[in-house]
Amino acid sequence: MTTIRLGMIGAGQIAAFTAREFARHPDCRIVAVADPSTERASALARSTGAENVHNDADTLLDRDDIDAVYIAVPNMLHEPVATAALNAGKHVLLDKPFAVNADGAENVIAAARRNERILMIGMNQRFEAGVQRARQLCQAGRFGGIYHVKAYWRRRAGIPRLGSWFTNRATSGGGALLDIGVHVLDVALHLLDNFRPVSVSGATFTRFGNRGLGEGGWGRSERTFDTFDVDDFATALIRLEGGVVVSLEAAWALHQSRGNDHDVLLYGEDAGMAVYAGELFEPGEGGAYRVIQNPEAPPPAYPHGSRAEHFVNVLLEREAPIIDLDQALTVQRLLDAIYTSAAGNREVLL
Ligand SMILES: NC(=O)c1ccc[n+]([C@@H]2O[C@H](COP(=O)([O-])OP(=O)(O)OC[C@H]3O[C@@H](n4cnc5c(N)ncnc54)[C@H](O)[C@@H]3O)[C@@H](O)[C@H]2O)c1
Fold first, then answer.
1. CB of 249 closer than 6 A to ligand 1?
2. Mode of pairing for the β-strands spanning 233-240 and 197-205
3. Is the full-model pTM beyond 0.85?
4. For labeling, which of 35, 125, 215, 326 is most exposed (least CB within 10 Å)?
């Protein structure tokens, strides 16, 4: 293959962003878009130059002029749509979260292996400049032994559209934890290079959305549901093999000073780092302590900074895949375990 012919399944808010990343790749062409909303599918097709619009995924998957698909549909459709795509012989970039639970994720992995197709989960945060820099510094041993990571994504008022699929458990599988907690959890384990959890203690809360409060602007799908039955705040303590502890917080809505408070803090024996803020903390000369802004690191492994471009490069055999399916499955198992722990008010051993 010299050019990847791409189909886009789901033409909602994130698809518009991801399409721009695919469009930047000189060897990728968007051929078709599928979405039950003709208006959204047509708008995305127009903006990407795709000549074909479909109202359902199956019609797009029947096309033999498509090599791969990007899937960005409501979470409960990740498993069936990704499985159908893999069974149709397409390579798949599936947006996060992997599925609504680990059983679903395992089924998609089985379909990828059975059909010998490439399946990648769209963990875009791994390509952020700060994360790539921190990863280089971790690999260079700059922090000494890291024993604690604090990973958080907390919004003051950032519930995606109240009443949409996001805020209903049957269609989303979960709330803030599954939606944004997944990102910083994945980044934490990726930086530690440790996907070997031992135990989890989690708690979840529904305190804003159920009162009609805390809505943000994300999401294009219709408002369909009256009830809000997912978490708008989640917290967890995760022990990893080797004794490292990760503390996680995810909030769609929270009383706090900042509108969006988001970082992964690394605490090592020799140095620490606020990954997204780009600040490194370490002892300096003569007993002084220093905070280094944007510390120097080897050049990023993925200068394009894009999961979409990475996916195309993997299909073209120009880059080795950075997003490992066993790792993605472990993250999904951890999310499941946090919900189990929260529901049962107890620690869960893995
Ligand atoms: N990586 C990220 O940072 C990121 C950010 C936002 C959303 N996402 C993920 O992307 C997915 C979509 O989120 P969104 O924010 O774009 O939501 P959205 O509600 O804006 O869009 C979802 C779209 O899917 C369409 N759809 C529903 N059923 C479909 C089907 N059977 N076939 C094709 N299309 C169908 C809807 O009509 C809608 O246009 C979710 O899984 C979400 O978790 C990832």
1. no
2. antiparallel
3. yes
4. 326
